[in-house]
Fold:
Amino acid sequence: MLRKIRIFAATVFFVLITLLFLDFTGTIHTWFGWMAKLQFWPAVLALNVGVVIGLVILTLLLGRVYCSVICPLGVLQDVISWVSGKRKKKKFRFSYSPAKSILRYVVLAVFVLACVAGVGSLVALLAPYSAYGRIASNLLAPLYQAGNNLLAHFAEQSDSYAFYRVDVFIKGIGTFVVALVSLVVIAVLAWRNGRTYCNTICPVGTILGLLSRFALLKPHIDLASCNGCGVCARKCKASCIDAKNHVIDYSRCVACMDCLDNCHQQAIRYGKPVGAVKCAPSTTPSAASKAEANKAADPSRRRALAATAVVALSSVAKAQQGKSLQDFVDMKKDGGLAPIKEREEPDRISPLTPPGSLSLKNLTQHCTGCQLCVSVCENHVLRPSGNLMTLMQPVMSYDRGYCRPECTKCSEVCPAGAIKPITKAEKSAIQIGHAVWVPDLCIVNTDGKSCGNCERHCPTKSIQMVPTNPDDPESLKIPVVNVETCIGCGACEHLCPARPHTAIYVQGHEAHRTI
Amino acid sequence: MEKQEMNRRHFLKVMGGGAVASSAALYGCGSKSEPGAASKALGEVPTDKMTHRKNPRTGDVVSLLGYGCMRWPMIKGEGGKDVIDQETVNRLVDYAIEHGVNYFDTAPVYLQGMSETATGIALSRHPRDSYFLATKLSNQRNYTRENSLAMYRQSLKSLQTDYLDYYLMHSIGGGSGIQLFEDRYINNGVLDFLLKEREAGRIRNLGWSFHGDVKVFDHVLNMGIPWDFVQIQLNYLDWKHATSRNVNAEYLYGELHKRNIPAIIMEPLLGGRLSNVPDHIVARLKQQRPENSVASWAFRFAGSPEGVLTVLSGMTYMEHLQDNLRTFSPLDPVTEEEKVFLQETADLLAKYPTVPCNDCKYCMPCPYALDIPGILLHYNKCVNEGNVPKSTQDANYAEARRAYLVGYDRSVPKLRQADHCTGCNECSPHCPQGIDIPAELRRIDRFVEELKVNG
Structure:
């Protein structure tokens, strides 16, 4: 019964959290956005005291149910492990193994140090929610979007507006590769040994494990009823039941209740343990080295993936067109679309961070790199960073769109306090950077044409067009930027006709200002 | 996009017509209905009933439906490049000739310069004397004598022929008016050359097509040169409601008729704008003649005046061709009452704030990669369907907003939308309808911005 409740609750959480990463319409967020905010590490970074205390109390009361129900990465491993167990002769494939305490605490120490030192990329690599987020947003979301686009295609055929197309593209090759490697490592570990990752690597698992030893309610073996068959140990995906000695390692038990349902003698009960229960001693790091070995497989795979990506990109290159006879006659041929040169990212001294993130420092300190903001950014502005220190944390790019005034989605969804909630009114006054004009690239100078597209689209009216020649009001006009009122939204940069480099671009500010 | 739209609409119409016809047969006056009457609305397309007109100058017997070769179907060729779907063009041409069409009109600049070659390939499979071939001197960009003559010779080559039945000075009346006309054809001696070619028989009929400044029209008509024909824009909307600096067709046709110069009609359907009309106009037209398409009204109007030699239609799809063949085989001229009815319809249509874009693509390619006709046609579609809300208080605001924005992204890729217009105005001088394109794009951009902000 308890097991069924656990499975039900886990399914609800898992499906809805996954949908948070997939749904680009914002509907799921309206109702279930809080589920992301329940995640342990983001809540710690957000200094969300209420949630952290709540999760501590939950663990002290019931054990690591967080790992079995709330954590999407944990549930993902359960799903993979469950599929693995459906194979023949694999029904009872687990066995007790001693805890790899040294590894666990070393990883935890590295993790805490990385947090303190502000190495966001390492934090994002280890934190379980981040790992799941990048898997969902990089690997699952494109499939979901492709499915949506198929429906949109049919909707279009039938003149319905129920579905609309979205762009499917790899937002950051580094993050994509990391996501793929994460999934492979975790899937292999889960396929073979269930919750190995949670009990050797996961820093949140280690922290909660410290608490769950002292949980009020936990599974315990009734020595009077136990016949020593050991089924419980062989069904324990956390490998934490030492059936011979009738001891359970509560630091690793994720309270999945599988042992309860599988004990034919009903000798395991969940509740307040009667009498003294010993904690298992911790020794030998053998399974952990296996995990490490799996991780070592990364580089070659990474290279292979990069190569595939290069091939895919180069295939987009345009084919040569044959010269027809008419090319010898000079005429303006009607129709056809001019090609669009791919944008190249300007060289920003400081990266652009979304309104609400307060400053680059605040973002790097709090962001867990879960990709939720990147997933919901409907204007395709946010991308995971490719910088080694801040890998997977969001940065802004204006090649596909700009940070539009009516959207505050990233600030609404961030569970880690890296992007604080802001209103549309607040956003209109937050200066995240300022526009810089590049005379040599402006079409006034390259094509000899006035344009003014930046001025027309500036939401804060911070750009004016002035004649190049002060004495001739009819001369071609160039943009001048009022950097005091410019908020750095990127409308000018996105809509600038100059390609591949724009003639006006936004220089990021390390700390945001309110104007 | 719009063509598909028309196509489906047309399909529905035909289906509707069929349903009306069959129910009439089932419940109507059964005694009068002949066997097989139920399928009359969708019966065989006649092959031998095409209405013809005689060119008073050369005696050419021309089919009243002419094939416009500006809108051949396109497919994606190598490297994603647009190419003409030659196989389908061949099929359309064969079908048209089989059903009595014998006039084909193209130009060197059509379809990114590919129309003449494709038309030539399709027509060269038929005896040269079984059709009349028309093409034009499109020397708008470079009107040196050399380039103009090269263009003429190139047309003969592309069309695989050594004579042209109808040759036109392409789209006079634009730009600086008379000055540009003189520069393109008189000062460089090109018109003299063309007149000599006519004498030599390599040009059997010499004429011109006209858009824009009425002064040019009057000037060229009164030059004292015996023009064999003139091509004008005529339809029931332009008869009295010509937009921008275009001239009412009533005047243009009247002047030609007075001089006994055959008129060739272009834009009889305004690039589909007279087929893709608001629902209440559809209802109004279908009510009068339930078995006929909305488009057929426009074609019947254009074909009715006796001085019209042929009515050009750029038929992209087989369904367009078949529907038009039915309309012209034979033509049932509009009655006086119907003319009044169509004028009333035109008055209603003129009230719609659509942009008078006929999707001719003369404005393209835009140097900044916008899809200008795509943007304008989407706007028109939404005007016709009531999806251009005037304020956020409109009852259907949410649905209209979604339809506009979702449809916009479907019709035009984001990087080719109106917000990327630099206002360079490269486009406007090429527009035969005289649309101030940058101004329209800005207006649409502002409207879209309003929709986006007010979600």
About this structure: Chain B has two domains: 44-350, 372-453. The first strand of chain B starts at residue 52 and ends at 54.
